[in-house]
Amino acid sequence: MITSLQNDKVRAVRALQAQRRVRQRERRFVFEGTRLVEETVRAGVPPNFVLYTAPVEADVRGNALLTSLREMNVPCHTVSEAVMAACSDTQTPQGVLAVLPIPTHPAPEHPTLTLILDRVRDPGNLGAILRTALAAGMEQVLLTSGTVDASNPKAVRAAMGAHLHLRIATLGWEAIAAAVAGSDVWLAEASGETPYTAVDWTRPVALSVGGEAAGAGEQAQALAGGRVSIPMAAGVESLNTAIATAVILFEIVRQRGKNGE
Questions:
Q1: What confidence score (pLDDT) does residue 50 get?
Q2: What is the CATH number of domain 113-260?
């Protein structure tokens, strides 16, 4: 059992949890909690290693998870409760976490569904949007430099495994423009002139969404060919970014599903 905070694996986990530059340099991040670590097994993405506490192995679900990981030849190490608490980014650790490579998914050759996130700075919102984007069938999510790091621990937890299946790339505006060339680009704004239900989302499209505090920047505005809004009750200024994005994305799902029937 690992009991020292000076252990190399423990130090590696703590650095990855705390420092964006370490995650970017090593191209690794941390999945924490039973459900997220189970997702690595379902996705067939073997972690570099796993840390767990004794109660996890004594639990039926936890034992099954560890068995599956060992069958994938993943090194699994027992740690003390104190070590797990030091490695965890949560107040109540679930007793298991995995270090794994940040997946790299190829860009679609001819994308028809792209989400652009500009200056979305809350990691919980970002993670929720990524989870929704996967559920809505988005082909790629492009982040600007002003958006929070997608490997942030809170974003990873909120995304619930979306990182393993969805192309997520941080790009400059020139690269973003090239990536969505040939798509209609719509910017979501509270004051947008076009209701979101009036857009033909069956065409190749890119939806650009800004953060709650600052909204979309000048370059996002310049790239957009039109602005789309969600009608709301009088006196209501805006929706939470993640909720607004979900509303529009599932209008896209509705239209494309109807188109395919």
A1: 98
A2: 3.40.1280.10
User: What pLDDT, on a 0 to 100 scale, did the predictor assign at position 261?
Assistant: 46
Q: 97: which strand partners? A: 32, 51
CA-to-CA distance for 61 and 5, rounded, in angstroms? 27
The pLDDT of residue 212 is above 90: no
Quote the Cα angle for 206-197-238, to 5°.
Answer: 80
Predicted TM-score (pTM) of the model is 0.94
Q: CATH number of the domain at 8-101, out of 3.30.1330.30, 2.40.110.10, 3.40.1280.10, 2.40.160.20?
A: 3.30.1330.30
Give per-residue pLDDT as tens, 215-261: 889 999 999 999 999 998 887 877 899 999 999 999 999 999 965 54
Instruction: Compute how many other C-beta atoms are within 10 angstroms of the C-beta atom of residue 81.
Output: 13
Rounded Cα distance between 171 and 151, Å, is 15
**Distance from C-alpha of 255 to C-alpha of 257, rounded to nearest angstrom:** 5
Give the CA angle between residues 129, 155, 35 to the nearest 5°: 95
Whole-angstrom distance, CA of residue 239 vs CA of residue 218: 21
The count of other CB atoms within 10 Å of the CB of residue 195 is: 12
* Confidence band of 80 (pLDDT split at 50, 70, 90): very high
- Do 65 and 96 contact (CB within 8 A), yes or no? yes
For strands 28-32 and 96-101, give the pairing. Answer: antiparallel
pLDDT tens profile 145-168: 999 999 999 999 999 999 999 999
**Ranges for all domains in the chain classified under CATH 3.40.1280.10:** 113-260
* Cβ-based neighbour number of residue 166 at 10 Å: 22
Across the strands, what pairs with 195? 229
